[in-house]
Amino acid sequence: MASSNDEYGEPVVRLVIYNLKEDGGKDRPGGFFPHAWEEAHQFLAGLKPDVLLRQEATYSHLRKKARLRAAEEILGMKGYLTPNGTGKHPTALFVRPVTFPVSERVPYDGRFWRTPPTIVSARFADVPETEVLLMSWHAAYNSGDGRRREADEVTAFVDRMARRGGAFIGGGDCNEYPVPEGEVLPPVDWSTVTDTRHLHHRTTVAPDGSRVSCTYWDRALETVGLRDPARYAAHQLGQTGALAATAGHDRPDQGGPIRIDRPYSDAHLTRAVLRVRTHRTPWSDHDAVETVYSRRLFTQALRREVEPVPSPQWAAFPPP
Known about the structure:
The protein contains seven helices and 15 strands. The chain has helices at residues 35-47, 62-75, 144-164, 196-202, 216-223, 229-236, 295-302; strands at residues 4-5, 10-19, 51-55, 78-81, 92-95, 102-105, 118-124, 127-138, 167-173, 203-205, 211-213, 226-227, 261-266, 273-279, 288-294. Strands 1, 2, 3, 4, 5, 14 and 15 form a seven-stranded mixed sheet that branches. Strands 6-7-8-9-13-12 form a six-stranded mixed sheet. Strands 10-11 form a two-stranded antiparallel ribbon. α3 packs parallel to α5 (216-223). The longest helix has 21 residues, at 144-164. It is globular and about 55 Å long.
């Protein structure tokens, strides 16, 4: 049965991104999951996502993937978990089988990622002839050069989908900032940041010696034809709240609130967006980001029956 909500008056497809800090913590004595993990997944189940992109699934590989299997039961979804990388906080991805009845893991070379993404090839129930690539990522926290390499790896998958006539949805903790044009939040004033490690990890040095926020990830993905649904919701649907901060609420030493957890979908699918909103939660230092697509327009987008969302002026090229 299609995911629907009286709020929209039509069937919808929901995408949720959530970086649950360190997977809610270690197990309690007796092997019980931590309360934070259980409460967070009950909350996520209440959002009824069709695709859930999780970050920091730190302990989900233990005890024969006990947490992954428990999450599948709570959410009513099929789960995938990436192997540990050097970041030690694996990504995960969940798909609702009734919406995406066919899904399978996509192999890739994990050497280029500090925290390997989880990548799944799916088929949407209403348009089974078209592949939809789904991707959950957690970009390197400690290196602008590392994030550039990782972003370029994402563009390779975008290119693959374009050549195949497929679609793309991805998202996660980008660990860097959106291009500031059109944003609601002011850019970080790096002259006020006292965490010098963070300063090094998230900035480049301008010719005048000042520090400039890293935005390569956002610029690269928009240039190759992806769109940020939150940007679309804010500027095309009048939902300025879509550009709210997703992290950094309690970190003035790192520059304060920032929008680093972001969804991206290809230029056609983004036309189907109805709403983007963030959900503050007590279980993590990141907010959950929910993107709601019209199922009708999602179907039309996969069939290329809608116009693609144009690129922002700062992107290098219009969509193909």
